[in-house]
Design brief:
alpha+beta; Nucleotidyltransferase, domain 5; 7-stranded mixed β-sheet; 3-stranded mixed β-sheet; globular
């Protein structure tokens, strides 16, 4: 419930810069040949550093950290969740940055920290903002406030402080969280010139021209340029984004009526999805529906590192195929609560349907299946929210996927079967990095249209659905019952 997860900001910056230098060296490309740099990053994770020295003042609080759950409960109990949702598209949860900032201001043993924040003497930012600072500050001791403090609108939209309609820091939200605007970075379009690297980093200045949070960059890298296009990234968690067009909150009630809702009404209106910014190129904004599933790949890590029943995640596919059926065993992997669409930080993982005949292989298959069930649940909600015109049957709708678990043939086939639609695996594994490169290249004029980028996308593997409606219904019914027991068992 109060799980803490932290990163060392200096380690992040050193690793990013070191990897970029290694890429230049191994590719034989000189810094003078690089037209632009793109940055993509883990979202919501919050860094605090000294404006003058550029040194971090504490470890970064990571998106998975739950120490601010009580702050979130207080916001919901005081009736502020509805106002926050109508302005940000986000459900109040420890996941987002604002409560992490508030916790730091309240609890870090730094004298006069609130006052220093109000004066702009310390800086808050997500990882992109921290990297921009370190890249533009350089190896030399560059002091003072001339170092730019910038972020992009996709990362800013995950703080719970950005008004998603006009893409500015919202004064009322800043007041709710008591976060001084002077401590926050300036939000910029995702594709556009931010600043340049300090010459000491790569030997010359290189423009930083594309920045986006990892899931937004993946949406762009998957060429999801039309309304209704959808991608899923399978990593530690699974993150689905669907292009929802150019209008903010077009899917929901307007902000005025949302202001009269309570938190339960709001969750019903959004069906537990988040409304976020897809990207911004120049003045053109693209919005997105998002579902954040917290535990997918991490479930397989638990089987390997926690239980020791597999030595490598790659062996799980053959085990699941040979087993043939889950024998009624379901694993609900709420190791850090449940994300979309339930948003239940109190939920805990459970295994149901266990009998004397259950083996470790059943648990392995149940772990793989749990990812597909969770994705199925939110894809159905997205289909409903988007209200897309019918384009023949569901099988003409495709889900583009990327991430480590796309290399698991059983999971991908099972996912296609549950969704009853094709799954297309990108030929580029790192579509997140590709999206950042695309955004930087658009800003630098290397590509002049999204159509050019769409022509660069290619499919490595396609999985066609091959499951009867009755079998699909039986499996989903079993999952729903396991989910119900998990939530009721922990007060959800």
């Amino acid at each position: 419930y109060n799980r803490r997860v932290e990163h060392d900001p200096l380690e992040i910056a050193e690793a990013a810069i070191g990897t970029a230098r290694m890429a230049l060296a191994e590719s034989g490309v000189s810094a003078s040949e690089v037209a632009a740099i793109g940055i993509t990053n883990q979202r919501e994770t919050t860094v605090l550093w000294d404006s003058r020295s550029g040194r971090p003042l504490a470890n970064a609080i990571v998106w998975q950290d739950h120490r601010t759950a009580e702050i979130c409960n207080g916001l919901s109990d005081s009736g502020k969740a509805d106002d926050i949702w109508s302005r940000t598209g986000l459900i109040v949860d420890p996941y987002f940055s604002a409560t992490k900032m508030r916790w730091m201001l309240d609890h870090l043993p730094i004298p006069n920290l609130q006052e220093r924040a109000a004066n702009g003497d310390v800086r808050f930012g997500t990882v992109d903002s921290w990297l921009i600072d370190q890249l533009s500050r350089g190896n030399e001791e560059r002091l003072g406030h001339d170092v730019p403090h910038l972020t992009d609108v996709t990362n800013a939209s995950r703080t719970m402080l950005l008004n998603i309609h006009d893409l500015t820091w919202d004064p009322d939200l800043l007041e709710i969280f008591d976060i001084p605007e002077a401590t926050l970075p300036t939000p910029m379009p995702s594709a556009g010139t931010f600043t340049s690297t300090h010459p000491s980093i790569f030997g010359r200045e290189i423009p930083i021209s594309g920045v986006a949070g990892d899931q937004h960059a993946a949406l762009y890298g998957q060429s999801c340029f039309a309304r209704g296009d959808m991608k899923c990234t399978y990593g530690t968690g699974a993150f689905l984004l669907a292009n929802s067009g150019t209008e903010s909150h077009a899917l929901y009630t307007d902000s005025a009526s949302a202001g009269a809702m309570n938190a339960d009404d709001l969750e019903a209106a959004s069906d537990g999805l988040l409304f976020t910014l897809g990207w911004q190129a120049g003045a053109a904004k693209t919005y997105a529906l998002e579902a954040s599933i917290f535990n997918t790949g991490s479930t397989m890590q638990w089987l390997r590192d926690g239980l020791g029943i597999i030595s490598d995640a790659s062996e799980s596919s053959d085990i699941a195929v040979l087993l043939g059926d889950n024998d009624g065993v379901y694993l609900v992997p709420a190791f850090s609560g449940l994300g979309s669409p339930h948003w239940d930080p109190h939920a805990r993982a459970s295994i149901t349907g266990v009998s004397r005949g259950t083996t470790k292989d059943h648990l392995i298959r149940a772990a793989l299946e749990s990812t597909a069930y969770q994705v199925k649940e939110v894809v159905d909600i997205m289909d409903s929210q988007l209200r897309l015109p019918r384009r023949g049957n569901r099988r003409e709708r495709v889900l583009r996927v990327d991430g480590g678990q796309t290399r698991n043939p059983f999971l991908m086939q099972f996912q296609a079967d549950l969704l009853d639609r094709p799954i297309e695996v990108s030929a580029v594994d790192e579509t997140t990095a590709l999206g950042a490169a695309f955004l930087a290249g658009r800003a630098a004029g290397i590509w002049r249209s999204d159509r050019e980028l769409a022509n660069l996308w290619s499919c490595a593997r396609r999985y066609e659905p091959d499951m009867s409606d009755s079998e699909r219904g039986r499996l989903i019914s079993g999952w729903n019952e396991a989910l119900r027991r998990t939530k009721s068992g922990f007060g959800g």
